[in-house]
Design a protein that fits this description.
single chain, 149 residues, Nuclear Transport Factor 2, Chain: A
């Protein structure tokens, strides 16, 4: 009888652990889906040239950083967004972009985006935060690799 009770308790414990794990995975997937929203807006902004998508993607206090010619450079998200013309680039048909990876822990996350353009390949590293229930890009650093012609 003890063996039956022990086996039943063990089976019940495994079932509960499995159910809790599935619930955790489901919650993580929901957060990752929500965290992809600003990243998708970022990609749409590049594809269309429409700065409104970028306003949806970036937190108002976000910064962009890059290192070029031996110098650290930075720009506010407002300055970056102001550079969008409202029109797609002339070579838009040759441009490719995608979310390479995303990692979420609690209300913080990190994503890698690749912009593969005819003249250069950009790798963007996005810091994400969930602020007041909404995911936003809070920082962007990037590397630009020119393509040989």
């Amino acid at each position: 009888m003890r063996k039956i009770v022990f086996a039943a308790a063990l089976l019940l414990s495994v079932a509960i652990a499995f159910t809790l794990r599935q619930a955790t995975i489901k919650a993580q997937n929901a957060e990752e889906t929500a965290a992809r929203v600003p990243l998708e807006n970022y990609l749409k902004g590049h594809a269309t040239g429409d700065g409104e998508f970028m306003k949806k993607a970036f937190h108002a206090d976000a910064k962009l950083f890059w290192y070029r010619d031996g110098k650290l450079n930075q720009r506010s998200s407002a300055e970056y967004i102001a550079g969008f013309s409202g029109k797609p680039a002339a070579d838009e048909a040759q441009r490719k972009r995608w979310i390479e990876s995303i990692k979420i822990t609690g209300n913080a996350g990190f994503a890698v985006i690749v912009l593969d353009y005819p003249a250069a390949k950009f790798t963007d590293y996005m810091s994400l935060l969930k602020i007041d229930g909404e995911w936003k890009i809070i920082n962007k650093t990037f590397y630009s690799e020119p393509k040989s012609k």
